[in-house]
Each structure stands twice: as C-alpha cells, then as structure tokens.
Amino acid sequence: MLRIAALCLLPKGSARPEAATGWEPQFFSVAQNETVIALGERIIPGSAEALCNRLIDLVMPIESDKNKREFLESLTAFDREAQSRQGQSFGKLSAAVQDEILIHASAPGVRLHHDFQLVKEWMADAYWSSQKGLAELGSTGRMAWTEFPGCPSAQTHN
C-alpha cells in the first residue's frame, strides 16, 4: 500500500471538515465516502476532522487496481453487514451499532477481519500523516535544524 505523504487539506482557520465547503469525492461515490468517514471516526476519533477520507480519496486513483478493488470491497463488506443487521448503510447506523460491528470485525477468524485490518491500516496511514495526527505525535512542522538542543554530544559535531 502506498504510504501517504503528509498533506494539509484543511483550509487555514477551519476547525471542522464542514467548514471546508465545495469538496466532493473524486474516487469514492458519495455513499462510499460516507462509509469511509464513519469507519474512520469509529476507528480513530478525530479522523473526520483530519479529513482522512479526502486524503484516501486523493491517493486511491494512483493505487494499484488490486488495492483499489480490495478497499472498495472492504467498504462494501461493512455496508453489507450493516444492511443485514439494521437495514441501513454503515454510515447511517448509530455509533453503538457501528462499534458493535467493528468489535466483531476486529476478532481474528471472522469474515470481516481482513476488511477491518485493511480499513484500519489505510485510516492510520492517513491520520498519522495528517496535520492533526502529526501534531499529536509532537511535530511542530519544522523540517530542518542547524543544531539539536539538548544533544549530549553537541560539542563533537562539526
């Protein structure tokens, strides 16, 4: 799977994805995008605000046909499970029912386990390379330093 480079998709001053108007998915259908957002929020809270769905939608067209197919099949599997349980797509379910499905899917050996692992990996890649995720990891956005404060052997560096 392509490792996603850090991109800042959230306009300056926007605190919520709804504030970034005019965006439409280019790869996903509207329904698939809703499923990606719902899955992401249940797997990594804050992924909707970090716009992980947009990053995945942006990267997906350059992925291999196999990776595209597997990701879309995983979204379909979660929607199919939601339909069989509640008669609605995954994104339309309550958080409690979504969690119930994801807890079931996280168990090794169940039918949805591979789909859960795949979506979780994509979401983690997107989140931890987003501005929000990088900030949680301690990134300040600085890319280079002339010296490293606190380095115990700073005197030996040339």
- Share of β-strand residues: under 5%
Task: Calculate the mean pLDDT score and round it.
Answer: 85
**Any idea what the shape is?**
elongated
What is the count of DSSP helices, taking H or I runs of 4+ residues? 6
Helix percentage:
40-55%
The secondary structure category is mainly alpha
> How many E strands?
0
Rg from Cα: 18 Å
* N to C succession of SSEs: HHHHHH
Number of domains: 1
Biggest sheet record? none
State the end-to-end CA separation: 39 Å
Uncertain segments of ≥5 residues (pLDDT<50)? 1-20
Verbal overview:
The protein contains six helices and no strands. α1 crosses α4 (95-105), α2 (52-59) packs across α5 (113-128) and α3 packs across α5 (113-128). By secondary structure, the chain is mainly α. The chain has one domain (26-140). The protein is elongated and about 65 Å long.
In short:
The protein has 158 residues and is mainly α.
Q: What is the element layout, followed by pairings?
A:
Blueprint: H1 30-43, H2 52-59, H3 65-86, H4 95-105, H5 113-128, H6 131-136
Q: Which features does this protein show?
A:
mainly alpha, elongated
